[in-house]
Design goal:
By secondary structure, this protein is of the alpha+beta class. 37% of the residues lie in helices and 27% in strands.
Length: 463
C-alpha cells in the first residue's frame, strides 16, 4: 500500500475494500506485517540470492562472506540463482563450508556465462570498430550506415533475449519450492550495472549517424536521411528492455508468495567511475518490481555496506484473507476506502492456483495444544502425510524444530527432530528445561516432508 512512493503503515481491516470478479466480499481475517532481515518475525526464513553479474570480483566474495556470517542462520532455507543455474543450498553446514561452496559455485557459473557473453561482446566491438562512417553523402557510406544499423540491431536483439530478459521459469521454480513454506521470504538480487556491451561506443556511433543524416538533409539525396533516421530510432528502441521484460509475470509470482524483492546495484571495480554500458531502463524495471513487493533498492560501491543497509530496511505489508471457492478464475481488486493510495497485490488467480490455495489451507500441518507446565514444553502435531510408500523413501516424513528466545531475542534453546511416523497425530514432550526461567517466546516449526508444506507457531510463555 503506497501513498505516492511511501509505504503506508497502521492501516486496519476497515480501511480496505476487496472485490472478487467485481463483487465486494467480506474480509475474513486481516493482519498487518512489519518485517526486517535484522529483526525477523520468526527465526525461520527463506532467502533467494540472485547473482546477476559477469565480473566475479573481490567485492562479490566479501558480500557472500558478510551474508553468511552476519545474516544467514542454520534455521533458514536458501535458493541461489547464478547466471547459468538455480541451486538449492543447505544451511546446516559450517559457515566456512557454506561460504566456500557458494563462492565456488557462483564463480564457476559466472565464468561460463562470461565466456558465452564475450562472444557477443567481441562481435559488437568488431562492428563498432570496423564500420567507419563519413559525413559525405556517398552511396557507399549510406549503404554502410544502413547495413550497420540493421545488422547491429539484429545481433543486439539476440543478445538481449539470451542474456538480459530473465527466464520466468526460474521464478516458477521459486514458486514451486517456497509455496506453502511459512516464514519471511527475501529475494536479494546482486545486480552488476554494466550489462550492455560497448554501449558507450554505440552512442558515439549513433552521434556519427545523426551527423550523416544532417549532411544528407543538406544534399540533393534527401531520401536517404529519413531511412537512416528511422533506422536510428529502431536501433534506440531495441535497446530498451521494457517491451520484452516479463515484469508483470515476475511481480505476480513474488506478490503471490509475499516475497520482498531487493536489489543491490554495483559496478565492477574496473569501470567504477563511468556509466558506460549501464541501462537506466533495465534498472527502472527492477526498481518497480522491488517497490511493488515492499523491497529496497540501492546503489553501492561496497556490497557489504549494501547488505547492512538492506538488513535494516522495514517491509510493511497487509495479509488479507477472503473466502475462496473452487471453480472459475478470480480477479481480485483491493482498494483503500479513503485516501488516494495505490495497492500492489496479485490480481488474478487461475483454477489451478485456487486449487493450490485450498489444498494449502486444508493439508497444512497443524500445531496444537502447546503448553509449558513445570518447565516442560508439550505440543501436538497432526494433519501430515503418512503414505507408507512415500514415507519409506524418506529419512522421515515430519520435521519439527523448537526454538526458545529470551526477551533480548537471543536463542537460549533449540531442539530439532526428523520423525518417521505412520500415526495420524504425534505429541512431543520435552524434558524439563530447568535452566530457563521468566517470560520467553517459543517458536515451533513443523514441515511435512512429503508435501513440503510448513507452519510456524510462536507465542510467549512463562517458565
Amino acid at each position: 500500500m503506497f501513498d505516492k512512493k511511501a509505504l503506508i503503515e497502521s492501516l486496519s481491516k476497515n480501511d480496505f475494500m476487496v472485490s472478487v470478479n467485481k463483487k465486494v466480499v467480506e474480509i475474513s481475517s486481516f493482519e498487518s506485517v512489519k518485517r526486517m532481515i535484522s529483526n525477523p518475525t520468526t527465526p525461520f526464513r527463506n532467502f533467494i540470492l540472485s547473482f546477476n553479474l559477469y565480473d566475479y570480483g573481490e567485492q562479490v566474495n566479501e558480500g557472500i562472506e558478510y551474508f553468511v556470517r552476519n545474516i544467514l542462520t542454520d534455521n533458514d532455507e536458501m535458493m541461489i540463482f547464478t547466471p547459468e543455474n538455480v541451486h538449492i543450498f543447505s544451511t546446516d553446514a559450517p559457515k566456512d563450508k557454506i561460504i566456500d561452496d557458494i563462492k565456488k559455485l557462483v564463480k564457476q557459473d559466472c565464468r561460463i556465462f562470461k565466456a558465452k557473453r564475450t562472444i557477443y561482446k567481441n562481435s559488437f566491438k568488431e562492428k563498432l570498430g570496423t564500420t567507419r562512417l563519413g559525413i559525405a553523402p556517398e552511396v557507399s557510406t549510406k549503404d554502410t550506415a544502413l547495413r550497420f544499423i540493421n545488422s547491429y540491431r539484429s545481433e543486439w536483439l539476440t543478445f538481449k533475449n539470451r542474456f538480459l530478459i530473465p527466464d520466468v521459469n526460474r521464478y516458477k521454480l521459486v514458486s514451486e519450492y517456497f509455496y506453502g513454506k511459512d516464514g519471511d521470504k527475501w529475494f536479494i538480487n546482486f545486480q552488476q550495472r554494466e550489462i550492455i556491451p560497448e554501449l558507450g561506443e554505440l552512442r558515439k556511433k549513433i552521434r556519427e549517424l545523426r551527423i550523416l543524416v544532417s549532411s544528407l538533409a543538406e544534399s540533393e539525396e534527401t531520401g536517404w536521411g529519413p531511412m537512416i533516421s528511422k533506422g536510428i530510432r529502431d536501433l534506440e528502441i531495441s535497446l530498451l528492455l521494457s517491451g520484452k521484460f516479463p515484469q508483470n509475470e515476475i511481480q505476480d509470482i513474488l506478490l503471490g508468495l509475499n516475497i520482498s524483492y531487493n536489489v543491490i546495484f554495483f559496478k565492477s571495480k574496473i569501470k567504477m567511475d563511468t556509466d558506460e554500458n549501464v541501462s537506466p531502463d533495465y534498472e527502472d524495471i527492477l526498481r518497480n518490481i522491488s517497490r511493488a513487493t515492499g523491497g529496497f533498492t540501492l546503489e553501492v560501491t561496497d556490497i557489504k555496506n549494501g547488505l547492512l543497509q538492506l538488513s535494516q530496511h522495514k517491509d510493511i505489508s497487509y495479509l488479507i484473507n477472503i473466502p475462496v471457492r473452487r471453480g472459475n478464475n478470480l480477479k481480485i481488486d483491493i482498494k483503500a476506502r479513503k485516501g488516494n493510495y495505490r495497492t500492489c497485490h496479485k490480481k488474478t488467480y487461475n483454477k489451478n492456483e485456487i486449487e493450490r490455495i485450498i489444498k494449502f489451507s486444508t493439508d497444512k500441518v497443524k500445531i496444537s495444544d502447546v503448553s509449558v507446565k513445570n518447565k516442560i514444553v508439550k505440543f501436538t502435531l497432526s494433519n501430515f502425510s503418512t503414505d507408507k510408500s512415500k514415507v519409506r523413501e524418506l529419512e522421515g516424513n515430519l520435521e519439527s524444530i523448537l526454538l526458545i528466545k529470551n526477551e533480548k531475542g537471543d536463542v537460549i534453546y533449540k531442539r530439532s527432530n526428523i520423525l518417521k511416523t505412520f500415526k495420524d497425530t504425534i505429541t512431543i514432550i520435552l524434558p524439563p528445561l530447568h535452566n530457563i526461567s521468566g517470560t520467553n517466546r517459543v517458536f515451533i516449526f513443523a514441515e511435512d516432508k512429503i508435501t513440503n508444506l510448513s507452519i510456524i507457531f510462536n507465542r510467549d510463555f512463562i517458565f
